[in-house]
Write a structure and sequence with these properties.
Number of helices: 6
Helix content: over 70%
Strand content: under 5%
Length: 97
Amino acid sequence: MNNNVELEAAVFRRLLQHLDSRKDVQNIDLMNLAGFCRNCLSKWYVAAAAERGETISYEQARELVYGLPYEEWKQLYQRESTPAQKAEFAAASKDKH
C-alpha cells in the first residue's frame, strides 16, 4: 500500500509540473475538455487534508497547485475567456444539473 501512495504522489507532482509547463492552457479549457481544472485540484487537496484531520486553506492549496500565489498567477497568465469558451462551459454545466 505504501508503494502506491508514493507512486500516486509522484504522479501528482508530475501532473503539477505538466500543468505548470502549460500555462497557456486556461482553466476554462481544462473544464471544457476534462471537467476539472487547477482550482478543482486545489479543492480536492483541501478535502483530502480534511479527511486526514489536517488543515490547509484553499489559498494555500492553490499556491501549491499553481506554484505561486493565485492572484499573481492570474495577473501573469490568465486571459479573458472567449464567448465560445463561456458558451461551452455553460452548456456543460447545464448538462450536469
